[in-house]
Amino acid sequence: MSASIKDVAAAAGVSVGTVSNVLNRPDKVSPATVARVHATIEDLGFVRNDAARQLRAGQSRSVGLIVLDSANPFFAEVARGAEERAEAEGLAVLLGNSGQDGSRESAYLDLFREQRVRGVLLTPSDLAASVIAHPGIPLVLVDGEAPDGSVPSVAVDDVEGGYLAARHLLDRGRHRIAFVGGPLAVRQVIDRLEGARRALAEVPDAQLEIVEKPTLTVLAGREVGEEFARRAPEDRPDAAFCANDLLAVGVLQGSAILGAIRVPADLAIVGYDDIDFAQSTVVPLSSVRQPAREIGATAIELLLESLDNPAKTPRRVRFRPELVIRASTGG
Ligand code: RIB
């Protein structure tokens, strides 16, 4: 049985109210008493009951964040940006990973509602109208938008990002471009492909091949690269625009593994996100940069705005993507 606040008070020789002040309003207690109470908490292994505190205070100190893939460095950066901004407000961020699975996403939303978090930042597994229409909790969409603008959102213009990537490959003289994507149900993949289509429409003899994979991971990309390498040279694309950097890293590895394909000479590759690792691959990756940390911080800003004024018209923030050119496209 863990120690109670009464046990701590008795052991430290103070009142329960003093222990509560040490935890919630330490500025009202002498430094010596604060130190003695914290030492006692440490000795007894006391853990505060935040649910009880929340009931008294009427609100939680935490925010939920549900991402598509917590193993993807892009979302780790989004989470870091959200944490840094949240900490400035005395809030903590609780992370959930939906794994692109709608049922996991719903389970985390239910859990965060039960935990009475202040709100939820959600990268939707698909823009499920039910979640957005009836969130039952203050919601901010991250890396996605509500079609009707009914909830605040922060994202990058992925159509523009897809255009920048494909236009760059065309400008490098590549005309057989493969779009290597994840599920074409994922909004980010759909928009990036749309941008690529718009760029190719500007060059009459350019060809687009769509390679859809079930996940946006290095392994999925590697399978694509190895498949390219098994093709006869005349059947291979001369460029690959990958829907994110993890796929691009995989394509780079898979296409080069048999020594059949040289990057960029035979195959130019562009990724998306510009994760830190993109700069240090064996052939540094060109990529479309998303300001991931700013996206996370802005999501917290939008949540605070909606908490301060629920009647305020939801704000939609859309960052501009930036093409970063490196060796994988001859930069
Ligand atoms: O989750 C798939 C991709 O969508 C991520 O890599 C990131 O680009 C996000 O926008």
Which properties best describe this structure?
434 Repressor (Amino-terminal Domain); 6-stranded parallel sheet; Rossmann fold; alpha/beta; binds alpha-D-ribofuranose
Task: Output the CATH topology of the largest domain.
Answer: Rossmann fold
The chain-level mean pLDDT equals: 92
Highest CATH level, the class of the largest domain: Alpha Beta
* SSE run: HHHHEHEHEHEEHEHEHEHEEHEE
Rounded to the nearest angstrom, the radius of gyration is 25 Å
Note the main sheet. Answer: 6 strands, parallel
What is the structural class?
alpha/beta
- Based on DSSP secondary structure assignment, what is the total number of beta strands? 12
Uncertain ranges: none
Name of the CATH superfamily of the largest domain = Response regulator
- What bound compounds does this protein have? alpha-D-ribofuranose
Strands of the biggest beta sheet: in what spatial order? 2-1-3-4-5-11
Distance between the termini: 62 Å
How many domains is the backbone divided into?
3
> Rough shape?
elongated
Portion in strands: 15-25%
Count of individual helical segments: 12
- Which percent bin holds the helix content? 40-55%
SSE topology sketch:
Layout: H1 5-12, H2 16-24, H3 31-44, H4 50-57, E1 62-67, H5 73-87, E2 92-97, H6 102-114, E3 120-122, H7 129-133, E4 139-142, E5 153-156, H8 158-171, E6 176-181, H9 187-200, E7 207-212, H10 218-230, E8 239-242, H11 245-257, E9 268-273, E10 286-289, H12 292-308, E11 316-319, E12 322-324
Parallel strand pairs: 1-2, 1-3, 3-4, 4-5, 5-11, 6-7, 6-8, 8-9, 9-10
Antiparallel strand pairs: 10-12
Helix pairs in contact: 1-2, 1-3, 5-12, 8-9, 10-11
Bound molecules: alpha-D-ribofuranose.
Alpha-D-ribofuranose binds near residues 68, 143, 188, 272 and 273.
